[in-house]
Specification:
CATH topology: Jelly Rolls
Number of strands: 7
Distance between the termini: 10 Å
Number of domains: 1
Radius of gyration: 14 Å
Oligomer: single chain
Helix content: under 10%
CATH superfamily: Jelly Rolls
CATH class: Mainly Beta
Strand content: over 45%
CATH architecture: Sandwich
Amino acid sequence: MSEKAINLKQKAKLITDHWSPRVIASVDDSYVKIAKVKGAFTWHDHAEDEFFMIIDGSLTIELKIDDKQESVKLSQGEIYVVPKGVMHNPVAEEECTLLLFEKKTTAHTGDVEADLTQSIEQQLKPL
């Protein structure tokens, strides 16, 4: 981690893989992560809330709540918190850059093991 100010646009330029979040800061028991995403991710949930903020582009978060499917569409500058335990699937039609806040114990895809799952060790690699 750095003691300098973090420029999100500069960090985003260093990311080359989609759906591979990278830790850029730590806040108490949570990580601040930046990611580039494109296409559909995978349905999953977490035992903790998950914070999304759109830096560039747009993102749709598909949600399954009480056997109903809903979606939230986010544009640049907007945020959304997926409540713990809610099945969700982020989808970006075009490349989107986002900021995530997650507890340090939050698994990338919850209990779901998918091709896009990233370990915390992968996410902690410096940019």
